[in-house]
Write a structure and sequence with these properties.
single chain; about 325 residues; alpha/beta; six-stranded mixed sheet; five-stranded mixed sheet; 11 strands; about 35% helix; globular; Ca3427-like_PBP2; Ca3427-like PBP 2 domain-containing protein
Length: about 325
């Protein structure tokens, strides 16, 4: 959710080992502070993968993995589950949940324009125009979760319009121009724009589930088995996470010099996040709980779309 141009960015490609018979995995990720253990896995532990950044988030990765542009995606839990749980998904859905990246919830900051005196609290957002990166993205899904928590869903249309704006910079511009009234984005990515006075914080909302999951293309993941390269990816990611946990100063240095966060914000974020000790595997109950919330919020429909068991590769 770092403010970057709306385009796919390829970074630090590591080509496959010539002794390997299969090509390197193509891994999609969101280029922000949560990416740090993945960066360490590549830098220190020879992660054999081509990393492709998606600044516009999980919704874009859903499209990319279904189009065969990436093999693996690391993104927001609600975005992946909403993508598979909606009715009318073509074919086999294109991907399955295979791993867990972050165990802790995500704090979504709720933001409006710097000069919007009419917006004074979360309650004043009922019937407002919500800005989202993409339909089906976390910023879109969490709008319904917010409406559910506030009791607005009974009115059928909790927001007057949903404005698709692709990326974080466009969202910030839109709340200041009036194109949108508010949007939601990760807290620490939003904070420096509060500090500079570009946008104003209205409130926050936490995901009712662990925040980041790993998915694999159905070309590489069946109901009960994984391509061996994915097993290697889990091993390298686990080592990257251990390195992150054991080298906090290196993590802060990377986040504050390469990703545009302040050192105090990077250190504060470290207190709030816990990455998975073992990335392989997804708890069915976490997926089922997320589906339940998304159905209650009106994002998914009871009896339609894929169920929790079908979304997860069981290994």
């Amino acid at each position: 959710m770092v403010a970057l141009p709306y385009r796919v960015i390829q970074t630090s490609i590591i080509t496959k080992n010539p002794r390997m018979s299969s090509p390197a995995l193509r891994v999609g990720y969101v280029p922000e502070h949560f990416f740090t253990p993945l960066h360490f896995a590549q830098k220190h532990y020879d992660l054999g993968a081509t990393l492709t950044a998606f600044p516009s988030g999980t919704g874009h990765m859903v499209t990319a993995i279904r189009a065969g542009e990436i093999d693996i995606g690391i993104g927001l839990t609600e975005g992946w589950i909403a993508g598979l749980g909606k009715e009318g998904v073509e074919g086999d859905g294109g991907y399955r949940l295979v791993g867990t990246y972050v165990d802790t919830p995500l704090c979504w900051a709720i933001s409006t324009g710097a000069k919007r005196p009419d917006i004074t609290s979360v309650s004043s957002l009922k019937g407002a125009k919500i800005g989202v990166s993409r339909i089906g993205s976390g910023s879109h899904v969490m709008g319904f979760v917010l409406a559910d928590q506030q009791g607005w869903l009974a009115d059928n249309a909790p927001f007057s319009d949903t404005v698709v704006l692709q990326n974080f910079q466009n969202l910030r511009n839109a709340v200041n121009s009036g194109e949108a009234d508010f949007f939601m984005w990760e807290h620490f990515t939003s904070k420096k724009y509060y500090d500079s006075g570009e946008i104003r914080r209205v409130g926050e909302i936490y995901t009712p589930w662990s925040s980041w999951k790993i998915v694999a293309s159905t070309k590489l993941a069946s109901a009960s088995s994984l391509d061996p390269r994915i097993e290697t990816l889990f091993e390298k990611l686990d080592r990257g996470i251990r390195h992150f946990n054991e080298n906090q100063d290196e993590a802060v240095s990377y986040i504050s010099t390469e990703l545009g966060y302040t050192e105090p914000d990077a250190r504060e974020w470290l207190k709030t996040v816990k990455f998975a000790d073992k990335t392989k595997g997804v708890k069915i109950e976490v997926v089922a709980d997320c589906i339940g919330v998304l159905r209650k919020a009106g994002v998914l429909v009871e009896g339609k779309g894929m169920d929790a068991v079908s979304m997860v590769v069981k290994t």
